[in-house]
Amino acid sequence: MGPMKKLGIIGGMGPAATARLFGRIVEFTTVGTDQEHIDVTILSDPGVPDRTGYLLGRAGAVDFVPVLQRKAAALRDLGCEVVAVPCNTSHARLDAIASVAPELTFVPMPDETARFAAAVGCTRPLILATDGTLACEIFQTAAERAGIQCAVPAADVQPQVMEVIYDYVKAGRPAPAALVQGLIAHARALGADGVILGCTELSTLGLSARCDGLPVIDALDVLAWRSVIACEAPAHDLLADFA
């Protein structure tokens, strides 16, 4: 095994998702000793302004891009070569964030997730994500590039997605199982053939790879997997989990 690239994580959006990403990176790196793992630097700043509020133009919302640009530059200065940003909504401005450090390789979570969904046979998965992510059509565009379509929650269901993200996960409270199961059932009602967890806060729910017979593709898991590969480390075959 040759030298691996150093990974940087721009985290804190939220802290639990960042912690889960690091854990999944460790799990997905198929090595036998501590010394064989990837060198990872994590900058977890929970003070990053709310991404959805800014993207939707809410009164008083603060631009999050300059903060994340500073994090990217700091990771570059610390010797990182690959960067993961475990916040799908922030990817609406990933080009601007990455522009301050063009020598870094940013792992594009939505695009990698859409390609993964296509690889496991999804043609029209339901996207569960923040209002900001949906409004910016981050996953809709990624799905189109991957050669598939995607479904979005009905107008009366999307508030339930936001409730899980903001009122439960971000608030440190367990989400009611019935609420989460209802979102999976909604995918079936829409005729979707899979579910994409398009907000890393939803990743902390610990859903299995299949729920109610549908593949559940966790964008954070895909980010972890592709980050390991980008760092040129031996990686677990995530696709095999959906075989």
Distance between the termini: 27 Å
The side-by-side strand order for the widest beta sheet comes to 2-1-3-4
Give the percentage of residues in beta strands: 5-15%
Count of the domains? 2
Mean pLDDT score: 97
Q: Count every beta strand, where a strand is a DSSP E run of 2 or more residues.
A: 8
Low-confidence stretches: none
Oligomer: single chain
What is the global morphology?
Answer: globular
Kindly report the CATH topology of the largest domain. Answer: Rossmann fold
Number of helices: 11
Q: Which architecture name of the largest domain does CATH use?
A: 3-Layer(aba) Sandwich
Helix content, binned percent:
40-55%
Query: From the helix content, strand content and strand pairing, which structural class follows?
Result: alpha/beta
CATH class of the largest domain: Alpha Beta
Largest sheet: number of strands, sense, barrel closure = 4 strands, parallel
Over the alpha carbons, how many angstroms does the gyration radius reach?
Answer: 17 Å
* SSE pattern: EHEHHEHEHEHHHHEHEEH
Enzyme class: isomerase
GO molecular function: amino-acid racemase activity
EC number: 5.1.1.-
Keywords: Isomerase
